[in-house]
Design brief:
The protein is mostly helical. It has two domains: 31 residues, no CATH class; 37 residues, no CATH class. It is 50% helix and 7% strand. The chain has five helices and two strands. Strands 1-2 form a two-stranded antiparallel ribbon. A hairpin with a 5-residue loop joins strand 1 and strand 2. The model has no long low-confidence stretch (mean pLDDT 82).
Length: 82
């Protein structure tokens, strides 16, 4: 799945497809309570992200928060916008 996301341009760096990086991301999302374990092999969204009415708002909020950590491609860093 990660390789497909890379090919589609949704993951910027191929290195993001390795198992340790994916495991670290999963563990971080579990720690942030964005994901919760549902049995030994399944992950689900945490309760505050499933809440009726507020769930989508909370998801959009976490997406915006995580977007701050994405690095910009080198070409974008050279373009100055005003």
């Amino acid at each position: 799945m990660a390789e497909t996301l890379f090919i589609e341009g949704k993951i910027q760096y191929y290195e993001s497809c390795n198992q340790p990086a994916i495991a670290n991301a999963k563990n971080a999302l579990l720690e942030m309570k964005v994901l919760a374990k549902n049995g030994p092999a399944y992950l689900v969204l945490g309760p505050q992200y499933l809440a009726k009415g507020e769930g989508e708002k909370n998801l959009l909020s976490i997406i915006e928060y995580l977007r701050e950590f994405r690095s910009k491609p080198a070409a974008d860093a050279l373009i100055e916008t005003s």
